[in-house]
Amino acid sequence: MKPTLCILAAGMASRYGGMKQIESFGPAGETIMDYSIYDAIRAGFGKVVFIIRKEFADNFKAIFEPRLNGRIATDYVYQELEAFTGKRDIPADRTKPWGTAHAVLCAKDAINEPFAVINADDFYGRDAFEKAASFLTGECNDQTWSIIGYELTRTLSDHGTVNRGVCQVDEKGNLTGITERLNISMQDGKIICEDGLEPKELSKDTKVSMNFWCFSPAVFPYTEGLFNTFLDEQISIPKSEFFIPIVADEYIRKKAGIIEIIPATSLWFGVTYKQDAPIVKASIDALVDDGEYPSGLWNDY
Fold first, then answer.
1. What's the first-to-final CA gap in the chain, in angstroms?
2. What is the block-wise mean pLDDT of the chain (301 residues), using blocks of 10 residues?
3. Cα separation, 63 vs 76, whole angstroms
4. Distance, CA of 102 to CA of 243 (rounded, Å)
5. From CA 246, how far away is CA 234, in angstroms rounded?
6. What's the CA gap between 180 and 194, in Å, rounded?
7. How many CB atoms lie within 10 A of CB 5?
8. What is the DSSP letter of 174?
9. What DSSP character marks residue 90?
């Protein structure tokens, strides 16, 4: 069975100031997602599931259905505030989605096979998808999941702070813990994290998750249980979020299984701020010039 690619595209992009998920970055108008899907198809993935907000559906389908028809199966899942909240009353001042782990949970009925999860606005590179596909088809099970790991210094933005899942790793290359750290930036040659947690300064060789995860379908019931606990404790906090690293950390802490770190060698870049866009476009142009991608991604595929 071919693995599935699940793309998280329901975020509101408040720091970016627009719908960066469907912005054109490639020479023929390609989005960052186009490159991820292209790499996934080359690596052997059989389906892509877009997790979006319902009001984005028409735009997404108009862009991707003509490009992907006949190349890979597609499905669309809507991340809505009321999904998996039961009979709880949602506070009136809650406007943003519940977070990335809730987004994955919303795909529960659309995925029945091992799958990868990625961000819509991150470029991961061909090597990352090949390694993920190999893991999902050969190693992944209910007790063995993985993440594609990147060095923190290669994931910062020159135009503002970023949030990262900081990994602790044992001698076998498995996660021993993961913590979502907020407001990370380079200051005077040091990586500083201004979120009130310790340590405030992070090592330059710190390994982080860029939200490229590999799961078995067992992640769905596990996540649902944790989401119920999250809601019981934090539903009244307007900006509280249920992140994938929260699920991963609990999975490890409760010894439900292991999460392997698969080191990435391909280039990563992403768009958090508008100022990142020219850098992303230049990076993609360079890869096209080097022959890694055709100038018209879907023209001859």
1. 23
2. 94 46 85 96 97 87 92 95 93 89 97 97 94 98 95 84 88 88 94 94 88 97 97 93 91 94 86 82 94 90 58
3. 13
4. 8
5. 13
6. 12
7. 28
8. B
9. P
Query: What is the Cα 199 distance to its own chain's centre?
Result: 25
193: left (phi over 0), alpha (psi -120 to 50) or beta: beta
Question: Parallel, antiparallel, or unpaired for β 207-215 and 162-169?
Answer: antiparallel
Q: What angle do CA 166, 169, 175 make, to 5 degrees?
A: 80
The answer to whether 144 and 138 are in contact (CB under 8 A) is: no
Q: Which of 106, 107, 9, 5 is nearest to 46 (CA)?
A: 5
Residues 181/160, Cβ–Cβ less than 8 Å: no
The answer to whether the CB of 4 falls within 8 A of the CB of 48 is yes
Name 151's bridge partners.
207
Q: Could you give all domains of the chain from N- to C-terminal order, each with its CATH number? A: 4-289 (3.90.550.10)
Using CA atoms of 30, 121, 154, 283 in order, give the dihedral in degrees to the nearest 10: 10
DSSP at 141: B
- Strand locations in 170-267, DSSP E? 175-187, 190-193, 201-202, 207-215, 258-263
Q: Is the pTM of this model over 0.85?
A: yes
- Tens digit of pLDDT for each residue in 277-301? 888 999 999 999 999 999 999 986 5
HSE toward the beta carbon, residue 190, CA cutoff 13 A: 8
164-177 core/surface letters (b: 16 or more CB in 10 A; e: else): bbbbebeeeebbee
User: Quick check: helix, strand or coil at residue 71?
Assistant: coil
CB 16 within 8 A of CB 272: yes
Nearest to 208 by CA among 220, 191, 227: 191
Condensed to tens digits (0 to 9), the pLDDT of residues 203-249 reads: 988 888 889 999 999 999 999 999 999 999 999 998 899 999 899 98
CA 207 vs CA 100, 133, 144, 149: distances in Å? 20, 21, 19, 6
